[in-house]
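queue> pop job 88
queue> type: inverse folding (structure -> sequence)
queue> payload:
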């Protein structure tokens, strides 16, 4: 019975989708970057979230559009404030790994009510950023399923 069979394979397929097959590239900034420069960089890179790294390129924070907006309406000189002052910091960051399923990642996006997760590799001393998993990633995977539901 074709209708039922199709929906079963679709569900199976959903759970086979992995972060590593859909995530986009990492967009990172140093902790010392000013808020002003971070805003320019966010526009230039056309992303909604920047990941912040320390000298060793390890994840220390996340900067969202609203973090930058909030600072912009409350502060005189955006050229004087480094992003590490206003970012959301480790260990309060939700992240995922390449081997995770997209369903797990989607769950974290919804539970934490955030737009994106850093894709990381666990390293001695911290997390190395290897990509970005966003609501757009999930939408792209959703469309992929409509083209491959066999
Ligand atoms: P926006 O606020 O621009 O709509 P988000 O909803 O993603 O974007 O971010 C909401 C808040 O959560 C911000 O303060 C941001 O720093 C923080 N945040 C964003 N992504 C994460 C994440 N993966 N883990 C923890 N906090 C995050």
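queue> result:
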């Amino acid at each position: 019975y074709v209708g039922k069979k199709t929906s079963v394979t679709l569900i199976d397929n959903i759970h086979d989708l992995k972060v590593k097959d859909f995530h986009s590239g990492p967009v990172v900034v140093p902790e010392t970057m000013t808020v002003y420069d971070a805003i320019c960089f966010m526009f230039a890179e056309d992303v909604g979230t920047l990941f912040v790294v320390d000298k060793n390129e390890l994840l220390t924070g996340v900067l969202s559009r609203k973090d930058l907006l909030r600072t912009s309406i409350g502060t005189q000189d955006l050229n004087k404030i480094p992003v590490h002052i206003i970012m959301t910091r480790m260990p309060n960051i939700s992240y995922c790994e390449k081997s995770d399923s997209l369903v797990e990642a989607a769950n974290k996006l919804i539970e934490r009510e955030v737009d994106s997760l850093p894709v990381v590799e666990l390293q001695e001393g911290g997390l190395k950023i290897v990509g970005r998993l966003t609501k757009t990633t999930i939408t792209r995977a959703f469309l992929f399923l409509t083209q491959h539901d066999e």
